[in-house]
Design goal:
Layout (H helix, E strand, L loop, with lengths): L7 E8 L7 E7 L10 E7 L10 E8 L5 E8 L8 E8 L2 E6 L2 E7 L2 E4 L4 H5 L16 E7 L17 E9 L3
Antiparallel strand pairs: 1-6, 1-11, 2-3, 2-10, 3-4, 4-5, 6-7, 7-8, 8-9
């Protein structure tokens, strides 16, 4: 039996696939209905966005919100995510989500907006914007790490050969209540 997670810090230490056409991801998904509150927190790296000539890539930090809304920050990676292990994580609190790359803040999601390259004060300085925290998932859910393709626009055409994502470690640090 799986136990749901709630607020806390969650991280995957992984190396993504080089083969174009896959989604390398870690996400929290709640079975609570989307109409009640946002129910998903995603970190996704699309292998079709690998820039092999410049040894860079992109990571998408996304929160799915009520009524089908979502907030996404797309952050350039200053390294080749397929060439070695890197840490991708998020710190989820009732007031917001701070996203991390290699344990450094990379983005903050607050008030249904994302701010790239935040200062630590950004989240703390405006807590009133969360009146009821309606823009941050409030329900516990499962943490899932996966590697997939559907051969469609988000993942891109399925790779013609085997593609692998390596996960070395997953960190679960629930917030003490």
């Amino acid at each position: 039996m799986f136990s749901p997670i709630h607020y806390g810090y969650y991280e995957a230490y992984m190396q993504t696939s080089l083969a174009a056409g896959t989604v390398n991801s870690m996400f929290m998904f709640s079975s609570q209905p989307v109409s009640s509150d946002g129910n998903e927190i995603d970190i996704e790296i699309l292998s079709q966005e690998n820039d092999i000539s410049h040894h860079t890539g992109l990571v998408h930090f996304t929160v799915f919100l009520p009524q089908g809304r979502k907030v996404t920050a797309t952050v350039p990676l200053p390294f080749a995510p397929w060439a070695g292990l890197h840490k991708y994580g998020f710190n989820w609190t009732p007031d917001g989500i701070v996203w991390y790359i290699d344990q450094q803040p990379a983005s903050i999601t607050t008030c249904a907006t994302s701010v790239v390259t935040p200062s630590a004060e950004t989240l703390v300085s405006n807590p009133s914007c969360f009146a009821g925290a309606q823009n941050v998932p409030q329900f516990p859910g499962l943490l899932i790490v996966n590697h997939w393709t559907n051969g469609q626009s988000w993942s891109g055409p399925a790779p013609s050969a085997d593609a692998a994502m390596t996960v070395y470690n997953v960190v679960l640090s629930p917030l003490k209540r």
